[in-house]
Every structure is written in C-alpha cells, then in structure tokens.
Amino acid sequence: MNLVYLGEIIKQLRRQLGMTQSQLAEKINISYQQLQKYEKGESQIGLQRYLEIAKALETAPHVLLEKLISQNISEPEIQYTSDKTQQLKVTPEEKKLIAYFRNIKDKEVKNNLIKLFKSVSESDSQEE
User: Fold this and answer.
1) Model confidence over 19-53: pLDDT tens digits?
2) CATH code of the domain covering residue 17
C-alpha cells in the first residue's frame, strides 16, 4: 500500500470536514504528531487504526481503498538519485505527475511534454 498517497487521502478528507490534525487525532485517541506521520506516509497504519480513521472521517473504509486503487498505487516505489548518487525526495506532486505521465500512450505527446517542462524549467532558473 502506498503510505504517502493514503496519507494524502486522509489529509484531504480531514480538511474537507474542516477538521484539524489535533481534532482528528483526539477522535482516534492518538497524538497529532502520530497523525502527521500517517498523513506524510512515514508510519504504517494498522487495520484497526485504519477503520478508526475512516469512521472519524465519516467515510466507509472501502472508499479510502477505492481512492488508492484509482491512483495506480500498485506501482513500486521508485528511488530517484542524482548524478552524485544522493537520494532525492520525491514530492506528492511529482509522484502524481509520474503516474499521469505513465498513463499517456502517445510517445509524441510524451516528448512534447518533456520539451515543455524543460523549457519552463530553464526559463524559471534564468529568472532566479
């Protein structure tokens, strides 16, 4: 299970309810720091805790799983490294971008997107 994406779903549902981390943490009897770890994907969520979170977020447990499945979370976690072999942290936005990119079948479209990102990246770095 992709812990980062599950954490994002929990965070999104919590915010939709107008609930703070402290409020949700209190409802499920954990510290807000532990909830932060769940939302960031830094800690695994046990089945019992998963069910408690779903109930506190007023959603059926299967809804969280359906959201995970719809985001291609079955793909393996990728470790990106720089030329200096230092691990780079991949943001949730970057992971979404990668997932969307992989769904594109047309190679020409993929190449055009790469050119676009390169162009935007180069123009942003020149402005700094």
Assistant:
1) 999 999 999 999 999 999 999 888 888 889 999 99
2) 1.10.260.40
Alpha-carbon distance of 116 to 38, in angstroms, equals: 35
Residue with the two structure tokens 């939302």: 39
CA–CA separation, 69 and 73 (whole Å): 6
Distance of alpha carbon 124 from alpha carbon 64, whole angstroms: 37
> Which of 1-5, 71-75, 92-96, 113-117 ranks highest by mean pLDDT?
113-117
* Whole-number Å distance between alpha carbons of 125 and 128: 5
Q: Is 45 exposed, middle or buried (0-12, 13-18, 19+ CB in 10 A)?
A: buried
User: Taking the complete model, does pTM exceed 0.85, yes or no?
Assistant: no
**Structural domain span for residue 112:** 80-127
Closest Cα to residue 44, out of 1, 91, 11, 96? 1
